[in-house]
Fold:
Amino acid sequence: MDTALGPPAQMAEQADDLTPMMAQYFELCDRYDDALVLFQVGDFYEAFCGAAERVARLCEITLTQRTDSTGEYPMAGIPIDNAESYIETLLDAGYRVAVADQVEDPDEVSGVVERAVTRIVTPGTLTEAELLGGADNNYVAALAAGERYGLALVDISTGDCYATSVGSETAVADELSRFGPAEAIVGPDVDVDEESVFGAACLVTGYDAAAFERERAEGRIQRYFGPPERLLAGDAERRACGALLAYAEYTRGSSGAVGPDGEPVDPDVDPEGTLDYLNHLTRYDPREYMLLDAVAVESLELFERRSVRGHENRTLVDTLDETACALGRRELTDWLRRPLLDEARIDARHEAVDALTRDPATRERLHDLLTEVYDLERLISRVSRGRANARDLRSLASTLAVVPDVRETLADADVDARLLADLHATLDPLTETREEIEAAIRPDPPQQVTEGGVIREGYDGELDDLRSTERSGKEWIADLEASERERTGIDSLKVGHNSVHGYYIEVTNANLDLVPEDYQRRQTLKNSERFYTPELKEREEEILRAETAADDVEYDIFCAVRDDVAAEAERVQALADRLARLDVLVAFAEVAARHDYCRPTVGGEGIDIERGRHPVVERTEAAFVPNDTHLGSGPMGDADGGETDPFFAVITGPNMSGKSTYMRQVALVCLLAQAGSFVPAASADLPVLDRVFTRVGASDDIAGGRSTFMIEMSELSTILSAATEDSLVLLDEVGRGTSTADGLAIARAVTEFLHDDVGAYTLFATHHHDLTDAAADLAGVANRHFETSREDGRVVFDHELAPGAAAASYGVEVAEMAGVPDAVVDRSRDLLERTGDADTGETSDRETVAGATRTNGHVEGAAVERAVERDIARTLRETDVATMTPIEALNTLAALADRVD
Structure:
C-alpha cells in the first residue's frame, strides 16, 4: 500500500493520545484515504509521515520533523502562496490531493483551529488556471453498465456536461476518444479493459457504489437539470450522470456530497449548491456525428503530433486556429472532434463562413472585437463557486461591454447567412449585470477582496462614510509630524507606523530632553525612543475601527455583487456559447481567405476533389503539389444497379513520393467539410461520411504483449467489422509485418472484402505490386501511382498522382537519398539485380528489376535490410570498445541506431 495515502500507521499506534491538531490530520487522512492530504498550518500546507516523505521527494523540498508528546513525525510543507505548482507535481505523479484549509479565524478561537477539506484536486476536475495550462477542455468521465453502457462527461472548469449511451466496449472507447478525459470513475458493474477503453493517460478509479444507485442518481440529476426521464435515455445514462455529479460535488467540497466510502462529506466554507453553474446537460446520439476513434485522431494528427521530430504547432487544430479567444479555441476543438452528419447544419456553417470570407471588413472587425473577450465559461464557473475575485468580475464586465459592438457588426453581415442572423438575434449583452459590476467594482481592483480598495466610491453611503473617517484620520496623522516638530523644536522627529505597534512618534536619543510631558513611551530602540500621545492613540483607534468596518462592509458588498452575477450564470453560459461559435466561424473564414480554401458541397454520391492539398503539410513545405481525387459510390450506394465507378484506389509508388500525405489529405478535406470549414482544394463535391478509419503507420505495445503486426491486425479487424458504404478507409501497407506471401494474401483478401461486402470509399497504399491486379478483377478498384522522374541518374519524386500502377518502389534509391553508406547501397543493388535474374530469367538491368518489383514489391526492402545488417555487423566487428572513451562509444552507438532507422 502507498504510505502517502490513508491514516499514517505511525499515528495509528497513538490514535487516542494524539494532540488535537494531529488528531484532525489523522481523521482527514482516514476519511479521504484515496487522496494525499495537504493540511494547512499557518502559511503552509503540511504533510506528515509517509505523505511527508513522498511530498519531499517529489517536490524536492526539505523533510523536517514535528515532535510532540506522542512522538516524532516526518513533516514536509509547501507555501500556500505557491501551492499550485507543487500540487501539479503531485498530480503528475498520479495522486489526488485533498486540500484541508483552516475554516476558522485563528484570532477568534481559543483552541485548535478547525480544518476541513475544501477541495480535492484531481486530473479531471481542475478549475485552477495555473493547473489547467490552456484553453482546452478538461473532462472527467463516468461509466455505468446495463443493457447498454451509460457515459457522462463534465468539464468542471467550464460547466460543459454531456451524456450518451452505447452498446459495446469498443463504442465506449470510440466516444471517449472524442473527448480525451483526464480522469474517469466507473461503477461497480463495469468490467472493461481500462487501458484500451480509457487510454493510458486517463486516471481510472472505482467510485462509491451508492452514487451509482438509480434513485440517488436521478435525485441529483433532478436537482441540477430537471426531470431525468426527459433528459436522458435509459437507466445506465442516468446512473452515470448522477454519479458524475456526486463526484464533482465530492471534489469541490460541497455539502451533501459523499466520499469514496459512501459516507457524507462534511460541508466546507462553500454552501450547498456550489456547483449550480452546472445547469445545462447535452444528451447526444453518437450517430449525429462523424466518428473518429483514437487511432484516426492520432494518425491524422488532429490534436497532437505523432513524432517528436515534427514541426511545432503543426497539428490540424493549430493550423486552423485563428480564433481570437479561449472560448473559440475550445469550440474549434469540439467541432473537429465531432464533425456533423446533418447536411442542413453543415450547409448553415458553410453559408456563414462564405459570408464572412466575402466580407473582409466585417470579418476583421469581429476578430478584433473577439480578442477582447475573456473566458466567460471559466469566469462564471469561479463566480458561481464563490472563488472569483474583483478582477474576475471586471473581466466579465469588459466582455459584456464588447457584445453590443459585436451585435452591431453582425447587423452589417450577410442577412441570408442563417447562423449569423441567429447569432445577431440571440447575443445577450446582459446590460444590467455589466452596469452593476461597473458601478460597484473599481476599474483596476486589487487581487485580494478582503483588504479594501475594491468598491467604487459613491456606490454605498455607509462605506463612503467609513472611508471618509479613515481618510480624515490619516490626514490628521500626516499633518502631525509637521505640527509636532514645530511644537517641540525637534527637527528630526518622525511619525511612523508598523503592524505591531501601530502609529508612533520617534525621537532620537540626542533629543530626548526635548520630549513633552504628554508623550508616553511605546518602544525603545538602540538610537531612539518611540512615543504616542493620548490624542494619537484616540485617532489610531478611530482609524482602525473605520478601516476594519469599511473592509467588512466592502467585502459584504462585493459578495452581494458576485452573488447577483452568479444568479445569471445560465445567461452568461448561453452568451459564451454564441461567442464561441462566432469565433470559430470567423476563424474558418480567415483561414479560407488567407490560404485559398474553397466552399465544398456536401451530400454527393462520391468523393470528387480537384487540386486537393494537405492543410498542415502545405504550411510546412516551400511548395506543395496538389492532387485530384475521384472515388464513386460503392456497389451498396449504386441505386440503379448499373456499372460501378471506382470507389477503391490501390496506390503504389516509392516511399517519400507522397502516398501517406495524399491519403490523409483526402480524409482531412472530408473532415473539415463536415466540421463546417472550407477546404484546401480548387473544388470539392463530397458525400457525408459516417466514419473515417485509418490503418497507417507502425506501432507496438511490448508491455502489453502485442507486436506491431498484432496491433495492425487488431486495427484492421475493427475496420472490417465496423466500416459501412458511407465510411472512408485509409490503409497503408497492410500485411507488412509478416512474410511477403502472408502479407500479400492478407492484403488481397482485405481488398476483396472491402470491395464486395462493405463498399467503403478506400485508399490502399501498398508495395505489394501484385495487388494492382485487383483492378482487373474487381469493378470498383482502380490503380493510381505517384510519378517519378530521373535527373542526372537520380530519382526525383514529382508527388503527382496518375492513373495506373507504379513501375517500381525505388527502395534502394530512397536509401541512398537518406544517406545510407555507399557500400550498403551498392550491395543492395547487387542483391536486387540477382533477385531480378532469379525471378524473371532476364538480363540484370533496371527494367528487369522493375519487373521483379511488380512481382514482389518487397524485394527492394529485403535487399536493403540484408545490406544494412551486413554493414552493422562489419562495424561491430571492427570496433574496439576497450580503447574507446565513453563519448566515442555513445557516438558509435548513435550512428548504428541511425542506420537502423
User: Anything to note?
Assistant: Residues 255-273, 700-705, 837-857 have pLDDT under 50 and may be disordered. The radius of gyration is 35 Å.
